[in-house]
Design brief:
Elements lengths: L9 H12 L5 E6 L2 E6 L9 E7 L2 E7 L5 E6 L2 H22 L2
Antiparallel strand pairs: 1-2, 2-3, 3-4, 4-5
Helix pairs in contact: 1-2
Length: 102
Amino acid sequence: MIKTNIKNNHIQIENLYKSIFADLPLTSIKLEESSVIIEHNDEDNTDAASLEIIEHGFGYKLNYWDGYSVVETVENKDLKKVLKIFKNTAKKMAKNLRRFSQ
């Protein structure tokens, strides 16, 4: 069930993180009241891959940086839609990290 804000979805988001990034030890998640950030902690890349959802007054913003050249930004008022995009983008991020950082 989708809750009404990011904070109320922390458990769902953290479980998603654990299931997708379980085999990628150099990743971390920061769960804050109005944002969630997944980062790749790469010593060789100071601008490493990251995925974040930020809650602002009129909706939600999702930012994805692959660590090299791809930037994606999505804004939407519907948290359910943003979380679905977040899940798909997290899978893409994990796939790229498995492919290119090993």
